[in-house]
Each structure stands twice: as structure tokens, then as C-alpha cells.
Amino acid sequence: MIEQAFGESSPWSLGVEEELMILDAETLALTPDIEHLVAWAEERSLPGVLKMELLASMVELATGVCESAADAVAALTELRAGAAEAAGLDGLRIAAAGTHAFSLPTAQQVAPDPRYREFVEYAGVSARRQAVCGLHVHVGMPSAEACMTALEGVLPWLPVVLALSANSPFLAGEETGLMSSRAEVLAQLPRAGGPPVFGSYAEWEAFVERFVRIGLADGYTRFWWDARPHPRFGTLEVRAPDQPTDVELTGAFAALLQALCRAAVERTPAGPYSRGDYAQNRWAALRFGPRAELIHPDGERLVRASELGAELLELVEPAAHELGSVELLGRIDPAACEGDRQLEVGRAESVEAVVADVAERTLGSD
């Protein structure tokens, strides 16, 4: 049995994880320094932690349990400032986006953790390509079954969230033609994309335990689906969005997913969502962003992602009112994404200018 903590924290409480890049302050290239950042943070009192990620040129910022999305924004603002201070001691900077515009992913050092090195040995080049950064939002669940209800309820809308959060149109020095290069790269991992259909929490648990028993995984965190139960935290973890540059947008997407989870649990379940529709919509969202044509959750028509974004905001508004996060949701413009700004800067100037702009905006400069 997998240890679980559902119901131990307040329902709909939040934990938010950001994946940020570590840059050389002069060249703006990805630079390995994760050990120094983690060591610096361990000696200080912060509203969360700095953690290793797969690559040594990336750092994860993880809040503690937050009661509101506004609390999460405050914590992440402090964590970003702390990571920037630590990086600055070594002549480095931090930057928040889905990908780095010009550094080569496969040239990056793997973080000094045996589990990461073992994974790279297993997954090969598909792991070496993972110089990508996403936003992970944990929403506290009142029970294990509520978590599974929320999982099915949010899935139809996750391609919309991906489209509106798309923030990685460049990779390895090239404009890829994808609004979210991160989502395309992430899909190369085993057990990625949309999760299978599970009829119950027990069915999910049995699936994970079978993979562990036969040696394919050492735990449920080795399933990189766009949404997954996280029983140790008692949450549903949503991993679909690109990493925002604007910390207020991080808060907005956290608020959106928090309200969506609550709405999903409190309304009558509609049954399993089509994984075929999900796969099509995920691809369209990563390719075109807000301008994607997506299959509506009702399965009967195509609707532009920007229109579905407006519909989603309307759907979650009552829950957002209850959660006190309506104002934060106003930060989301369904007709645009941060990747649009990257393309504007890159086409007018250079990929180096894209990274410089991202680094400036990471700490709040417009």
C-alpha cells in the first residue's frame, strides 16, 4: 500500500513548484550551479525549499502548504529573490520560462544525484533532452476518491491550460514552430502525456505497484503524466503548464487549477474523458498555443483555445470566488501567451535578447 495523506491538510490548499534555469550572468547560457544554490538555501529561513532537478543548470522552487494562490505568489516571489541572490554570489542569474532559447539541452550536466544518473542511463537521449521547465501545482484533496474525480474532471481542460501557458517557442537556438517546445520534449519520456483511465484510486495504486514490482519504476513519482495523484502530499498534482516568466501568472494558473479541481469534485462526474481527444488537443495546444483548434470537452465541435480559455475562466469563477482568487485570474489573457512575447523579441532582435528579456522579467521587471 502506498502511504497517503489525503484529507490531512485543508481541502484545496496549494503547493506550487517552479522549475527555473541557472544562467551565466554575461553569456546568459545555461550554467551548472545547483549544489551551491541548494546549500545556500539550507542555511536560511525561506517559505519553501530550493531543490535539485534532473540537470545541474536547473533549480526547483517549492513552496510549503499555502491556503491561497496569493500566499503561493508571495512565497514564490521570495524564493525567486533568494535563488537570484544565491546565483549572484557565483556570477550567475536565474530565468523562468519553458525552455532556454539557445543553450543545447544535450550539452548540459546531469545533477549529482544517483537517481538522476540512473534515469539518464535508462532513458538515454530522451532524458538528455529534458532541459525544459514546467509549473507543477498541487491541490489538496479531501480523500483518495475525490483525487481521482478531480483528475478526470480537470483532464478535458488541461490542453487549454497548456495553450494559455505556452512559453517555449525556442529551443537550441531555433524557432521550433511550436508554442510549447517543452510539452513536445516532455512527451518523449516514458509514462508521459495523459494518464490512462482508472476506475478508482485502488486501480491506480495497483497499476503503480505493478510497475514497481516488475522493476519499471521505483515509485509513483516516476510517472510523468500531465496530472497524477500524489498521495504522500495528499494532493492532485497538475504538471501540464509551461513555466511562466511572470510570477503573477504562476499565481494565476495556480488559482485556475485550484478552482478547477474544486469545481470538478463538487459537480456530478461526467465519466472518463476520451484519451484520444486528449492526445489530439495536447498536440494542437503545444503547436499553436491560444490559436489552437481544440475538440470541445463535449466532444462534438472544434473551438479555438482562446475561446475555450474564456469558457474555462467562466466555469471556475464561482469556485474562485469561494477561494478568494478571482482577482489573480484576471492576469490570464485567453487570447495570448508569454511565448508570443518571446517570438516578438526573437524575431526583432535575437535569441540572446529573448533570454535577456526573460531573465529581467523573472524578477519582476517589465
Query: What do the pLDDT scores average to?
Result: 96
N-to-C terminal Cα separation, in Å?
A: 49 Å
Number of helices: 14
* CATH class categorisation: Alpha Beta
Largest sheet: 7 strands, antiparallel
- What best-fitting shape do the alpha-carbon axes yield? globular
Number of domains: 1
Overall helicity: 40-55%
Poorly predicted regions: none
Radius of gyration: 19 Å
Can you tell me the CATH topology? Creatine Kinase, Chain A, domain 2
| CATH 2nd-level architecture | 2-Layer Sandwich
Order of helices and strands: EHEEHEHHEHHEEHEHEEEHHEEHHHH
Strand content: 5-15%
Describe the structure concisely.
By secondary structure, this protein is an alpha+beta fold. The protein has 14 helices and 13 strands. α5 (144-154) packs across α9 (247-266), α6 (158-165) packs across α11 (305-323) and α9 packs across α11.
List the topology elements:
Elements: E1 14-24, H1 34-42, E2 48-52, E3 58-63, H2 69-88, E4 92-95, H3 114-123, H4 125-128, E5 135-140, H5 144-154, H6 158-165, E6 170-171, E7 174-175, H7 181-186, E8 192-193, H8 201-213, E9 224-225, E10 227-230, E11 235-238, H9 247-266, H10 275-288, E12 293-295, E13 302-304, H11 305-323, H12 326-329, H13 338-348, H14 351-362
Parallel strand pairs: 8-9
Antiparallel strand pairs: 1-3, 1-4, 1-5, 2-3, 5-11, 6-7, 10-11, 12-13
Helix pairs in contact: 1-2, 2-9, 5-9, 6-10, 6-11, 9-11, 13-14
Q: Could you explain the architecture of this structure?
A:
By secondary structure, the protein is α+β, with helices and mostly antiparallel strands. 44% of the residues lie in helices and 15% in strands. The strands form four sheets. Strands 1, 2, 3, 4, 5, 10 and 11 form a seven-stranded antiparallel beta sheet that branches. The protein has a two-stranded antiparallel ribbon with strand order 6-7. The model has no long low-confidence stretch (mean pLDDT 96).
